[in-house]
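As the work plan foresaw, the team has encoded backbone shapes as discrete tokens. One protein thus recorded appears below exactly as we store it.

:::
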Amino acid sequence: MDKTEPENEDQEKTVAAKTSIFQFPHLFLGSLAIFFCVAAEVMAGDIIGVYGRELSVDSFFLTYATAFTLSGMLLGYLTGMIAIPKYVSQQAALRICTITGMVFTIISVFTMGTASFIFVALLGISNSLLWAAIFPLGIKGLGRFTKTGSAIMIMGIAGGAIWPLVYGYIKDHLGVHFQYAFLFAMIPAYAYMLYFGIAGHKVGQKAN
């Protein structure tokens, strides 16, 4: 008998004992991770134009600002298709992406001009595999609650609308330099996703 069968049976019994979607804390932690995932994607893809103007980069870079980030995401997708799961697991990819996201953000803040702009664009690579890694971890083990859980996860896309406003508030109303405002907006997002990939997705779940 496949050794996974007893594990599946135990999981089914555990889910059967649940009476509410609120008994799956990892789901809500996952929805928040999706919130920050989409927030990071929008910040890197849309704010890059504003960021580039503040850096006074060449008009060529400003014209194709979002295209640079999207090209990075495409490169990340292709790399993921080749590497996952043959060479690296999805959870490992999530950790790699969040760590590189923090590194690229820090470098972009402490450099100037075109170099800073390029590292913001490179965040497209870091962001490329986040959603695909976070979503299955968030709905793992939900059983008959999977449909409702998926809807809750999808609600996290609100981060793409809310987080740029947070960045704007930090920059414009708190008087923080635009690069430091970017740092304060991005590092917590990546740090939380890293936490979810390491430990958050296990909260409330029975250890196998």
User: Anything to note?
Assistant: The chain has one domain: 25-201. The mean pLDDT is 89.
